[in-house]
Amino acid sequence: MRAWIIGLTVALALVSAEGGHAATVFSGIGLGDEEWIPDGRGSGMGGAGVALLDGQNFIRLNPAVLGSFRRPALSALFRAEQRRAKDRFVENRLSEGDVGHIRLVVPRGKWTVFRIGIEPVTGVNFSFAQPEPGNVEPDTLRLKVRGGLQAISVGMGVRLSNDRLFLGGSLDAVVIGTIRETWTRVFARSDTLFPSQDEISRGHRGARWTVGAAYRAGGGFSVGAFLTPRASLTQTRRLKTPFSVETLSSVKVRLPTSFGGGVAFVGGKWAVAADVTASLWGEVDPSRYRNAYGLAAGVNYVTGQEDPLGRGKRIPLRMGVSRKVLHYAGLPGSGGAVTETALGAGVGLPFRGGWGRFDLSFEVGKRGDVQKNGAEEVFFRQTFSIVGWPR
């Protein structure tokens, strides 16, 4: 069984390193959509969990919750998404899937817990076509942007003050993933003029860190908070044409300051969490971005009765809701904030022997508005997660 788990982890790591990212219709701006993918349980709880201290919380936002783990655990997640995107003129249906993360948690000693994993940072999936009939030879200019940034992440959490105070930190080394822009000019006279195609690859190198804290207040309640300061990445742009490959430039790009807090309750069969988060994208480039904000709340209920001998299966059931103001200012010529509202639900299916479970969650929601932002999307997202050795 142990060899099977190791093989699964390696396979998912390879897929994660090479695969693309699901993203919104707005993701062609800058570095794309910021990814804060929760674990399988959190996906069914609206993404909430900044303060959830129950030894099963793999959330990336607050590394302090690592301190609540008492035994090694593994989380590997895959997401599939169907989207109906439209603007004032056209409507498209898209289907995408990608590996969300791989996270391994290992306690060391009595008070310290370590985490290592591969994490998505941003995701881009954007297409655009512009007919140009006024040229000498009529043609269509097409732009396709794909890819994203990923990080090798390490974190540490500690328990202090008789298991009441939890502190943690994590470091993301952004060294994986490329954003590719493909520019294609297709001529109307295809019999005599061949399409021209240029590809710009944007690679990134850099690091960012996060600190967090959580406090178990008693009565099953806990509070938590995190801070991710603004970080700079080195972006290297390379141009590939049918005739040559050359380095265009090496510039600095920035990721925003992010912070947030939450409250949670754990008691009996119930776990309840609510979070508020913010990312200050306006400080990165106020001409293109707005500050982003998010609210999330969710509940996890476990059926059956706890049995020390492990007889019978206890099934976790989840529900959640989230509301976000995204960091995009909308398409050119539009106004108003781009918002996203989503409802989620999920279930956990324990494996025989109690060594892990399969988490399945569903989310449905809408982002943007054609009248306010120039475009909108309705999405249906499915998250599949394997959790090994949960408490």
Task: Walk me through what this model shows.
This protein has 391 residues and is mainly β. It has a single domain (2-388), classed as Outer membrane protein transport protein (OMPP1/FadL/TodX) (Porin, Beta Barrel). 6% of the residues lie in helices and 60% in strands. The protein contains three helices and 18 strands. The chain has helices at residues 2-18, 40-43, 370-373; strands at 33-34, 73-87, 91-108, 112-132, 139-160, 165-176, 178-187, 196-218, 221-228, 231-240, 245-255, 258-267, 270-279, 292-302, 316-325, 339-350, 356-369, 375-388. The chain has an 18-stranded antiparallel β-sheet that branches. The protein starts with a helix and ends with a strand. Mean pLDDT is 83; it is low at 1-21.
Quick structural gist:
The longest helix is centred in the N-terminal third of the chain and has 17 residues, at 2-18. The chain is mainly beta and 391 residues long. The chain has 3 helices and 18 strands.
Topology:
Blueprint: H1 2-18, E1 33-34, H2 40-43, E2 73-87, E3 91-108, E4 112-132, E5 139-160, E6 165-176, E7 178-187, E8 196-218, E9 221-228, E10 231-240, E11 245-255, E12 258-267, E13 270-279, E14 292-302, E15 316-325, E16 339-350, E17 356-369, H3 370-373, E18 375-388
Antiparallel strand pairs: 1-4, 2-3, 2-18, 3-4, 4-5, 5-6, 5-7, 6-8, 7-8, 8-9, 8-10, 9-12, 10-11, 12-13, 13-14, 14-15, 15-16, 16-17, 17-18
Summarize this structure as a short list of keywords or feature phrases.
single chain, 391 residues, mainly beta, 18-stranded antiparallel beta sheet, disordered N terminus
